[in-house]
Design goal:
about 220 residues, alpha/beta, Rossmann fold, 6 helices, about 25% helix, globular
Length: about 220
């Protein structure tokens, strides 16, 4: 077993399973997807730590792969079916999109940083994830091309209500993400039912806010 395979097993056994992630499909996906492929070479040794891992290019806006446990718990709550059409918002270098792609029929992933989106597309293609399409788009915009979606996953936090993303959900669809609108930040699931949207708190979590989903600056007199 390679060092990375051992680290991947330790991540699942030491971080993911003890955090009440019991869905075998999620566990198998986390064991199968090589997280080290989605981080810069200089960060590979950190790929399986319980960290929000900086994958941004030098001089670019900070972008992160959020903690593996948060990713796993949100995907479990979303209950992704094999036939589902999924949108991953703020995919960064593509790791969350890859894990979702092992669970779903089709994944659309958006990333506001064009260079990072291109890198994500390249890595996903090299790993054989032919059911993922990566597009450069602002987080708040989502992607209407392949909407409506059964599941939308925010691969980061939001400080605002992402209304435009809500409108891209299919009736019965679910959106999962960390909502930092109030304190403490919480992972939430939002369900679209007819013309209404209901939400339910899942667990407390702190992850970096996605660019474009920040709270507007307050006016100071």
């Amino acid at each position: 077993m390679s060092d990375f395979s051992t680290a991947r097993q330790k991540m699942v056994d030491g971080q993911v399973r003890p955090s009440d992630v019991t869905d075998p499909r999620i566990l198998d996906a986390m064991l199968a997807v090589p997280r080290e492929a989605f981080v810069p070479d200089s960060q590979r040794a950190l790929a399986y730590l319980d960290l929000d891992l900086d994958v941004s290019e030098a001089g670019a806006a900070k972008r992160f792969l959020i903690k593996p446990v948060v990713t796993a718990k949100m995907l479990q709550a979303a209950e992704i079916a094999e036939t589902d059409n999924v949108l991953v918002v703020g995919c960064a270098s593509g790791y969350a999109a890859a894990v979702a792609a092992t669970l779903a029929s089709r994944v659309t992933a958006t990333e506001s940083d064009g260079a990072l989106a291109a890198k994500a597309s390249d890595v996903l293609a090299k790993l054989g994830f032919g059911n993922v399409t990566v597009r450069t788009a602002a987080a708040a915009d989502g992607d209407e091309t392949n909407a409506p979606y059964d599941v939308i996953v925010l691969a980061g936090a939001t400080e605002i209500v992402p209304d435009r993303l809500y409108r891209q959900l299919r009736d019965g669809g679910r959106l999962v993400g960390v909502f930092a609108i109030s304190k403490p930040p919480r992972a939430m699931i939002v369900t679209h039912s007819h013309a209404d949207f209901g939400d339910r708190a899942l667990f407390d979590a702190t992850v970096p806010v996605l660019p474009g989903l920040q709270r507007p600056p307050a006016f100071v007199f």
